[in-house]
Amino acid sequence: MTIAKSQTKSITQEKAKWMYQKMNEIRQFEDKVHEIFSKGVLPGFVHLYAGEEAVAVGICAHLSEKDYITSTHRGHGHCIAKECDLNGMMSEIYGKATGLCKGKGGSMHIADVEKGMLGANGIVGGGFPLAVGAGLTAKLKKTGGVAVCFFGDGANNHGTFHEGINLAAIWKLPVIFVAENNGYAEATPFEYASSCQNIADRAAAYNIPGEIVDGKDVVAVYEAAERAIERARNGQGPTLIECKTYRNYGHFEGDAQTYKSSEEKQKHLQELDAIVRFRKHLLANGLVSEQELMHIEQNVAEAIEKAVEFAENSPFPTEEELLRDVYVSY
Amino acid sequence: MTIAKSQTKSITQEKAKWMYQKMNEIRQFEDKVHEIFSKGVLPGFVHLYAGEEAVAVGICAHLSEKDYITSTHRGHGHCIAKECDLNGMMSEIYGKATGLCKGKGGSMHIADVEKGMLGANGIVGGGFPLAVGAGLTAKLKKTGGVAVCFFGDGANNHGTFHEGINLAAIWKLPVIFVAENNGYAEATPFEYASSCQNIADRAAAYNIPGEIVDGKDVVAVYEAAERAIERARNGQGPTLIECKTYRNYGHFEGDAQTYKSSEEKQKHLQELDAIVRFRKHLLANGLVSEQELMHIEQNVAEAIEKAVEFAENSPFPTEEELLRDVYVSY
Amino acid sequence: MTRKISFSEAVNEAMKLAMRKDPNVILLGEDVAGGATVDHLQDDEAWGGVMGVTKGLVQEFGRERVLDTPIAEAGYMGAAVTAAATGMRPIAELMFNDFIGSCLDEVMNQGAKLRYMFGGKAKVPLTVRTMHGAGFRAAAQHSQSLYALFTHIPGLKVVVPSTPSDAKGLLLASIFDDDPVIFFEDKTLYNMKGEVDEEFYTIPLGKADIKRQGSDLTIVAIGKQVHTALKAAELLKERGIETEVVDPRTLSPLDEETILASVEKTGRLIVIDEANPRCSAATDISALVADKGFDYLDAPIKMITAPHCPVPFSPALEDLYLPTPEKVLRAAAEIIGDETIVTV
Amino acid sequence: MTRKISFSEAVNEAMKLAMRKDPNVILLGEDVAGGATVDHLQDDEAWGGVMGVTKGLVQEFGRERVLDTPIAEAGYMGAAVTAAATGMRPIAELMFNDFIGSCLDEVMNQGAKLRYMFGGKAKVPLTVRTMHGAGFRAAAQHSQSLYALFTHIPGLKVVVPSTPSDAKGLLLASIFDDDPVIFFEDKTLYNMKGEVDEEFYTIPLGKADIKRQGSDLTIVAIGKQVHTALKAAELLKERGIETEVVDPRTLSPLDEETILASVEKTGRLIVIDEANPRCSAATDISALVADKGFDYLDAPIKMITAPHCPVPFSPALEDLYLPTPEKVLRAAAEIIGDETIVTV
Ligand SMILES: Cc1ncc(C[n+]2csc(CCOP(=O)(O)OP(=O)(O)O)c2C)c(N)n1
Ligand SMILES: Cc1ncc(C[n+]2csc(CCOP(=O)(O)OP(=O)(O)O)c2C)c(N)n1
Ligand SMILES: [Mg+2]
Ligand SMILES: [Mg+2]
Prior knowledge:
Number of strands of chain A: 8
Largest sheet of chain C: 7 strands, mixed
InterPro entries (chains A, B): DH_E1 (IPR001017), PDH_E1_Alpha_Subunit (IPR050642), THDP-binding (IPR029061)
Low-confidence stretches of chain C: none
Distance between the termini of chain A: 52 Å
Strand order of the largest sheet of chain A: 1-7-8-4-3-2
Protein name (chains A, B): Thiamine pyrophosphate-dependent dehydrogenase E1 component subunit alpha
Bound molecules: thiamine diphosphate, magnesium ion
Cofactor (chains A, B): thiamine diphosphate
Structural class of chain A: alpha/beta
Number of strands of chain C: 14
Keywords (chains A, B): Oxidoreductase, Thiamine pyrophosphate
Helix content of chain C: 25-40%
Mean pLDDT of chain C: 98
Order of helices and strands of chain A: EHHEHHHEHEEEHEHEHHH
Distance between the termini of chain C: 39 Å
GO molecular function (chains A, B): oxidoreductase activity
Structural class of chain C: alpha/beta
Strand content of chain C: 15-25%
Helix content of chain A: 40-55%
Radius of gyration of chain C: 20 Å
Oligomer: heterotetramer
């Protein structure tokens, strides 16, 4: 297995702008949540996706509403890449009635089924079988859709990894399994917890292609996804893509991250930053102008500010919501 | 991966006799249970091991009481190979008070912890984590013991396969995972349910050796086990051995086995029979004489008859047993 | 038109009718057909379920809709949850309810909670069919009755039918219900015969059925234990005691009104539940009446359950494990205050 | 000698003393140390548990006895079961009790049943420590209180402590108990301080504690809800009502005698249990009293529980989800027949 290198110009200008926008939305959304959380305003656990933008965006750039994704506890990036509404997301994180889930789900459960986003998930490994189910529907109903399962390096040792991928493989379902190998599961290194050297090495156990990409190179991710999704849409079954990436923040807000070395942090947060690299790539290839990029960055900043404002000005859910949505009948 | 061929004369005469005896005990025990069950005497579900004798015996030939095994719903063979008492086993299957578990466990839960037999198991895949635990004790207490996990081709798709082997691999535990690939899980072919071609192929996902052996050649199994157990005892961690085998009877007593072809049955029950082959091997290599073999066969037949007699003449457990052994205190 | 068929035939017929009615209804589970990819079984089953309950379905609906699964309960149960959330109406078979240990997360944390966590923006029309019950000499890991665990979990509906006719109507209601339903089938009832309407019909979830009318004593009994209750009622009648037997049929939602109305009439309650006693359906029903029906009660509420131990293998012990009409009579004697009842 | 330490420090101290006393005591779980194989953390932890409860243990006992695990609950829980059965005395941490969905089989079908299935020829001295409880804004999959599921299962013991001092003594008793014990720690209690003896001591499993004496009303409350009960008792005292607060401390085995004796004295019972209401510990205790304590009762048994819904994320809703002293007062008003109590 070799790490796939990104080719040039596979991406249209329009797509490139969308991707740059989404990456910036994720980064700025997360930076903002980080800032607000540190003020003690936000309730609960928050896991930030900053640093891993290239994965969600490189994959979701190929998807439309008929395609589904399953996500993780670190789900904000997947939501944004799958075009969930920023206001509704922020509001959800605040626990407000205008949240995408009326404030009932919170950060770990943001979902928008109509957009094909089947929910962040508080259970590590929870997404594998769920992606299989969405893939099964796509196959049986012949929708042409695919299902993408995002999962972490920690999840790769959970039993559902094995059961989910095996099922998708024997049924040749249109499912793409995307490992976000950020090197750690909470405070536990991937190398300690996993007996494999690469997650993609495990693809062979299911007779499916396994590919490793630089998960901080959005073009590389985009291209790997293209191959996998084509296979899936052609009825050739699942693919496992491992994206080597890094999370810029701690496991959750409040994590002192003593397990990271400062060189490692330095390298990832500076040299290898996915947004900086994509920006350079776009300029170098003349795909998008400096001005347009700045325009995007600014629009995003405004959108994030608005989302916070929207969330802060929204009301909390009222008492009758407590017992609503437990069953269809109430 | 290539199928290991058996070498000659790695087995001492004494060991060879023990192995021949145990294989015959298993076969005759199971044939007898089959016969009694068909008379409607035995309660519950019974899964027979006949046909797979070479696996349990080839492996357990290396084990002593300080070594542990975990077993499956098809556990009689493992019990016998681990030297559980035949009377106590038969009595257990009858649900009698003199059974190894006082009649409380039955066929699917026969156990003898002092012998290192951690129980047949009604839960497919249940044994993986249990073997890891026994291996962990061996490592921490430095007993020099190993733990063997017997499992079926069906179990190989359960999440516990993945979690158990990964754990044993990262902790370098003295555990040997022995796949009994008899081609079917109930009425479902291995090829349908498993995305891998061989179970042993999955060893690579855990960076451990995977070996395929002819599971109806007890010498081949014996030799593969020797290598694996040596690795384990040397602190080199787990091995996955896949034994290609076949069950002579149905999944459980009462199974019409419509999924088996008659050629397949013919081949396995006649040409490839493990006991017949081992018998020939012993004679051809002059390890044991015809007379001695006949003597063993006859002794076994008597022992099985006695076991049935013992079971039939034993009393059922009495009322106070119902609420005993739930907790240590009662 | 009705005719006598067995409990398992009734369950089978419900699935058949549901699959005919709605192409989104699919069935998944281990060996629900059996023999997948076996040459001579392309359009035929090897088993049709471990107890033959799903026989004939693969012939009629094909292997696209009757899916044999690997032994991967978490995998296919989770898949069934989102298949449901994305447009299918799956029936997932968990062969024995004891195997929930392999897929509780998918049922409890995903299936049951999706709708609520998503603020109502999803529905999960999933039916999980599963076998339960002691008396089959199947030992501790294949004989439990675990409906209490599921009843505890909000977002699930829980059905435990006691007759072929109820089984059919309740299963059809479950399949076409838009919430996840756990449907319990007692393996020792499969051969029981009863009159069952040929047509498609549903029995609403949440409606108890009074299986016998009476004015002196109420017995609420679950699943197979309805028959223990009916036998006890016969014996009690010989002593002049009229027993009302209430079959809740669904534990979640529970028909509180019918139970309370019966106790209001009789003043006495026995609950029969063959599951283990602690935090059980028996305690649930008892606690309901101890609160909302307290003023109706003339005597303590008695529960006839399994003891607090695993299901033993030995027939000698398993027979002692289960509720019996005699145990009911002993409880009745106590709360009616007539020791002679025991000796009926 | 006692001194004020927090609930989490008390739990930590119990583990430390147990590990000092017996080399067979080991600890396994996700990030119980954290940072395994990280160069600069060879003999140090990265976290010491997600909430810091296991801090310092790896420094003292090393990584051989404090084992970080992969995210493989079935794997390490099953391993803990047989490690226990083969001579160790493991403490396995299930980070949140909600994750039992990933390893119920290992707990329910293996750990709990081994001894019985083997006819008494094994013991399983395993302690599972796990976090539970709502109020942390942790949403539906990290806030449940699932002790009813475990209490339902024979072969398990279930402990739910409410104070630092109880936590320490009960955890030590659990670790040195020869049966599998599920030990619940309410995450919202971790910072609560209380007097705790420095020494090694155990509190027997199966003994309730009367946290407040009273003669008019019994409140049985579980875990954190003991404090809700104590607050309600204070408010009730202002109305001249003397409340007895019984903390069962262990749900399995349950100290039936103490509960019944209290109700015999007071004639009235309220149960507070923040878990979901159906087939719950609340119904269990209520049903016990509705049978064996029926003759003592002057009024219906009230249960203050969560509603039948998942735990909502929004603080506005989660606050409504939990029991409160006000809800207790409302129930008390009803069974005492004095509406003015509500307005205390
Ligand atoms: C079944 C389960 N076990 C444990 C946890 C606690 N937990 C939450 S996130 C996490 C680490 C996940 O690591 P990884 O999969 O690598 O994702 P990352 O956080 O790195 O994105 C753990 C252990 C959980 N939520 N669910
Ligand atoms: C978790 C679980 N799922 C399903 C079953 C039902 N079951 C019992 S044996 C069996 C087939 C096992 O096949 P395999 O592992 O190949 O073993 P074999 O019977 O061939 O020896 C199944 C599905 C079970 N006992 N446990
Ligand atoms: Mg990670
Ligand atoms: Mg098999």
